[in-house]
Structures are given as structure tokens and as C-alpha cells.
Design a protein that fits this description.
The complex is a heterodimer of chains A (about 120) and B (about 200). Chain A contains two helices and seven strands, in the order ααβββββββ. The N and C termini of chain A lie far apart (about 35 Å). With about 200 residues, chain B is mostly beta strands. In chain B, about 10% of the residues lie in helices and about 35% in strands. Chain B has four helices and twelve strands, in the order E-E-E-H-E-H-E-E-H-E-E-H-E-E-E-E. A six-stranded antiparallel sheet of chain B has the order 1-2-11-10-7-12, with no helix packed on it. Chain B has a four-stranded antiparallel sheet with strand order 5-4-3-6. A two-stranded antiparallel ribbon of chain B has the order 8-9. Classes of the chains: A mainly beta (about 120), B mainly beta (about 200). Chains A and B meet through helix 1 of A and strand 1 and strand 2 of B.
């Protein structure tokens, strides 16, 4: 990315900084603003992050996957989107890939992710 | 290119353009040249790489050698009287947020391409029903004993891209006066770091 481009994208660094850092394999809870007519409410979407795309740019997105009533649901969020109210890091996962598409073919016990033990010194 | 979120929450693809400072290197008028025009120059250039006649041209305007020189013919009435030789034109003085501009540039060269990419032909449209290996071919290029020739201008394969292309009505989303930068919606012709002409 050129230096000039950073001038534009620097304005969004604040929006990015207010979220906790998360990676593929982590379980997060995304609070999404939803507009219904004139009313606005907040919906939560909790699931596993299966990828982060185009990191450190304005086009960065992340994909969250959850299994809802036995049906796999995936949502893609732009990280600088104004409709994201808050992101909670629920659980950190220990995975060996950056993109966890193998989770799509698995269900139940096979789709588990080991928890990452974070040592505090 | 990058993207920003507009005030109404829509993700807008946009392009960053360095628009200035440009220097007025010549002002043409009806009496001496037969038409009204202003010549702007942009981008620094080493003196050793500049042809001697051009160095003299830039010296007349009192500036250093520039990379690109473009003439704008019949410019707007509102700028009349404001242009003078050697004056520096900044992006913030000409462009305002919300304006619509046209961008002219040279599109990316694509090399020798077939008719499907070059002219948007549909191709054959199927691989079955006895179709051999001509899925992306142009098909017939004319009739038979009359006219017994191919008409001029028949669209065929060939060199694609690298043409002068004008994209109209790009909205200026943001102006950065200190850095002379413009953020316009959508894309402009050509590769990164290439020159474009902006018209208001």
C-alpha cells in the first residue's frame, strides 16, 4: 500500500482499535445494529471466526460461522463497518491454519476447536 | 483503490488521486492562438532528462521541469482572470467535496485478445450438441458471393486496452487540501501511479 493511501485509511484506525484482537479459531460475539423502519436495535451473532481477509486495509472483512438449529450460518462483516457496535472475545481457540474452511464439512464433536491456554506472567 | 463507509452506512469503493500542485505553464487566447486554453504541468522531473526546448518553456513560466503537460481548452468562465503564467493550482482551490468530475486516462494494456474479451461477443454458448473446439470464436464474419469481401470495421480479435478512456461523473468524496489529494468514488482508467486528467 502506498503512503498516500494510509492517509485515507488512518481515519478508520480508531474504529479498528476499539475491537479486541481476534484470530481465526476464536469465538466472538458480534453486536450488529439492525435498522427496521425507523427503529434501530442490536442483534448479537456469536460464532467461530473462520477467516480474516485483506488484513490492515479498509477492505478487511472477517467471517463468523455458527451452527443454528443444525444449519450452518456464516456472516461476513467488514471490520470498519459502522453497523458493528461491539465485538466480544468469548474464547480463544488453538488452530493450525489461518482459514478454517474444514469446519464446514464437520459437525458435532468433530467441529470442536481446542481452547488456547493463555499464560499470564 | 480503497473503500470507505459513507454517511448513510454504505461501503463505497473509491480511488485516491494526487491532484496538484499544478503549475500554469502557458495561457492561450483567441488573439494569439485562435482559441482559449490553459496549459497545466504536474510532477517533478530531473533537468538532465528534460529536452532543452521544454526546459526553456518551463523557465518562461518560472518553474522547475515537470513530467506531464496538459492543455485544457475552453475552460470555465469562473476561472477567467484567475489564471496567469507560473501560478500554482492546488486541488483544494478547484475541487469541492460533492463535485462530479470526469477522469481521462490510458487503460491497462491487455495484449492480443479475442472477440469475447475485446468486443463482448457471447461466444458459442455451449459445449455440447456436437460443438467442437470453437467456444470463444467470432462465428461468421460476412455473407458469401455478395459482397464477397469482409466489411470494414468488422469487429475482430486484436490488441486490447491501452486506449484513452474517459470515465464520467465520479463524485468527489473527500478533499485533502494539505496533501493535494482527492478521494473519488469508483475507479479510474489505467494502472496504479499512472496519470489521469480530471475535468470538472
Amino acid at each position: 500500500m502506498s503512503d498516500l493511501m494510509k492517509i485515507v485509511e488512518a481515519e478508520y484506525s480508531e474504529a479498528r482499535a476499539k475491537f479486541p484482537s481476534f484470530k481465526a479459531g476464536d469465538t466472538i460475539n458480534v453486536h450488529v445494529r439492525i435498522k427496521e423502519g425507523n427503529k434501530e436495535r442490536i442483534q448479537q451473532f456469536q460464532g467461530t471466526v473462520i477467516q480474516r481477509k485483506n488484513p490492515n486495509s479498509n477492505g478487511e472483512t472477517f467471517t463468523v460461522r455458527k451452527v443454528s438449529n443444525g444449519v450452518g450460518v456464516e456472516r461476513i462483516f467488514p471490520i470498519i463497518s459502522p453497523s458493528i457496535e461491539q465485538i466480544d472475545l468469548v474464547r480463544q481457540g488453538k488452530v493450525r491454519r489461518a482459514r478454517l474452511f474444514y469446519l464446514r464439512g464437520r459437525q458435532g464433536k468433530a467441529a470442536r476447536i481446542k481452547e488456547k491456554i493463555v499464560h499470564k506472567h | 483503490m480503497t473503500s470507505i463507509f459513507s454517511a448513510d452506512g454504505r461501503n463505497v469503493a473509491c480511488t485516491l488521486i494526487e491532484a496538484g500542485p499544478c503549475v500554469v505553464t502557458q495561457v492561450k487566447n483567441v488573439e494569439t492562438d485562435g482559441y482559449n486554453a490553459v496549459q497545466l504541468a504536474f510532477g517533478e522531473r530531473k533537468e538532465k532528462n528534460t529536452p532543452k526546448p521544454l526546459i526553456g518553456h518551463f523557465k518562461k513560466a518560472g518553474t522547475t521541469p515537470k513530467q506531464k503537460v496538459v492543455e485544457f481548452r475552453d475552460f470555465r468562465v469562473e476561472f477567467e482572470g484567475q489564471v496567469e503564467l507560473g501560478k500554482s493550482v492546488k486541488a483544494g482551490e478547484v475541487f469541492v467535496e460533492g463535485d462530479f468530475v470526469d477522469a481521462i486516462g490510458t487503460s491497462k494494456g491487455k495484449g492480443f485478445q479475442g472477440v469475447v474479451k475485446r468486443h463482448g461477443f457471447g461466444g458459442v454458448g455451449g459445449q455440447t450438441h456436437g460443438q467442437h473446439n470453437r467456444q470463444r470464436h467470432p462465428g461468421s464474419i460476412g455473407a458469401c458471393s455478395w459482397p464477397s469481401r469482409v466489411f470494414k470495421g468488422m469487429r475482430m480479435a486484436g490488441r486490447t486496452g491501452g486506449d484513452r478512456v474517459k470515465v464520467i461523473n465520479l463524485r468527489i468524496l473527500k478533499v485533502y487540501p494539505e496533501q493535494n489529494l482527492l478521494l473519488v468514488s469508483g475507479s479510474v482508467p489505467g494502472p496504479k501511479n499512472s496519470f489521469v486528467i480530471l475535468e470538472k
